[in-house]
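Re-run with default settings, no changes from the original entry. Doing this only to confirm the output is reproducible before filing.
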Amino acid sequence: MPEPKLKTRTTGATASLGRTGFPHVISAIGGTLDIVTGPSQPGFNPIDLLYASLSSCLAMSARIAASQLGVLDRIDEITASVSGEKASEGPSRIQALKIAFSITGDIDAQTREAIARLAEEICTVSNTLHSHPEITTTVSAG
């Protein structure tokens, strides 16, 4: 039996900014996003993007999980909310992530729990955060 083909997507992002202003981010395939840092500015700051990456990955993974469990046709909506707590001492980081799933539809609590647990196993972002990935940095003049 042939191996299933994995769908691949070019990934990555580049942020740039000048002496003043905020970062402008461009994804490897041309998506753009402007970053904000003011507490009341609408938009995303870097920590929001971390939460957004995890929440969107978990929501999509929960849909995959529901399909694998054979209950996708009974799901109305899946919401994954992510928030966190910043560490009170250095280095600057998020010390705790909080995930809340809301799964509506004609399913019981046990099935909701199974979907959420399986989603965390499927999600590339949550798996990466759990694994302490190696980070390599290079520096150039341009």
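The helical segments are 46-68, 109-122, 124-131. The longest helix spans residues 46-68.
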